[in-house]
Amino acid sequence: MAKLTIRDLNVRGKRVFLRVDYNVPLEEKDGHIVITDDTRIKETLPTLKALIEQGGKLILTAHLGRPKGQREPSMSLRPVAARLAEMLGRPVAFVDDCIGEKVEKTAGLLKEGDVLLLENVRYYNEEEKNDPAFAEKLAKVADVYVNDAFGAAHRAHASTEGVARVVAKRGGKCAAGLLMERELKFLGDELENPARPFVVILGGAKVSDKIKVIDRLLEKADTILIGGAMAYTFKLAQGLKVGKSLVEPDKTGVALAALEKAKQRGVQFLIPTDNIVATPVATDKLNKKGKPIIDLNNPRTNTDQNIPDNEEGVDIGPATAEAFRNAIVGAKTILWNGPMGIFEDKRFAAGTNAVAQAVVDATQKNGAKSIIGGGDSVKALNKAKLGDKVTFMSTGGGASLEFLEGAELPGVAVLSDK
Ligand code: ADP
Ligand code: MG
Q1: What would the mean pLDDT of 341-349 be, rounded to a whole number?
Q2: What mean pLDDT is predicted for residues 105-134?
Q3: Is the CB of 194 under 6 A from ligand 1?
Q4: Model pLDDT, residue 1
Q5: Which pLDDT score, from 0 to 100, does residue 5 have?
Q6: How many CA atoms lie within 13 A of 61 on its CB side?
Q7: Which SS3 state, helix, strand or coil, does residue 152 take?
Q8: Are 351 and 380 within 8 A, CB to CB?
Q9: Ligand 1 atom closest to Cα of 313?
Q10: In angstroms, rounded to a whole number, what is the distance separating the alpha carbons of residues 215 and 197?
Q11: What residues contact residue 326 under an 8 Å CB cut-off, 6+ apart?
Q12: pLDDT tops 90 at residue 33
């Protein structure tokens, strides 16, 4: 990797300003705030342990939720400090601010191997604005900067970018943590010259979300499989009927361009030949976000290329799942981003689960490297209890998508070169 990692550092006695992704889901239970999923904390432990081993004085910063520059008590990182201490098996100090005297005083008292977590950095508006003066304040306690928050690296914020600039200007080192290093390896280096066949599976809601990724991967992949709602925009582009399916009529042009590029480059490009469809029926109920709930009734398999006028495509059909499986099991490299259907409803999860199983089989039986990006794809794989049977699952939803598009992430760009 072209960027410095903590393996290249010796931080003994130094204050290491470590940006982590502790944006964990919280819930209130009996008047207490509890962490409902500590995966993100767990994922930083290797980096923390390595830096503790090296004798660094660790100062952790993170954001939680969207407090919009306010001291929103329900978004405090204090419960995270307690959980981290349990998981790490050593005390974790906490300061209820991320800049200022109290932080500097506590940081000054740290001994080698000590860990301090600072309060939610988004309690300050200056964070998201990447305010230079705020970055200077954060950097007051930093000799070395380490970023292990891949999921936040696509944002140029003070704690992901500005503070690193200040440290670098002073001659300090800025390095990737071990989690960040893994993300860059699998989403970057491994896909640069993939073992072939290289099969890319793309799904999810919108073509517009993924068109840049499709375009870039058309230059690398041997096969591209398209599922999810985005498949209907491709169908529409081919003059087929899509009924009430989720489509983007203004994106048929880019869909056609992708199909043409695939033809020119000899990339096999598969679009579903059959679908699970259901009849959408409006209800007078609202969901948590206040949006009207639409029931999806009478699910059935539609084997026609066209979808009937009053029905909606909700998953790939069994023949498509079989065709996708055949392409996947022979692969040596697999990249998967986006579920095949509305997998949150178990009636429409079969296509996503079939693809998940095929990816696992290719990994376990064919020695394929399987890389999963995208928040919902990871969720789907975990739901099917197959998360530990693939090669790599990215922790960065939006960040992994931008990285796959070939964008330079500001939080990565700012790290020191090797
Ligand atoms: P990821 O987070 O893995 O990148 P996306 O966010 O792009 O994936 O898409 C996931 C969402 O796409 C899911 O909420 C899923 O319900 C939705 N989706 C998939 N297929 C369909 C479909 N046929 N119709 C409507 N929504 C769909
Ligand atoms: Mg998503």
Answers
A1: 96
A2: 98
A3: no
A4: 63
A5: 97
A6: 32
A7: helix
A8: no
A9: 23
A10: 18
A11: none
A12: no
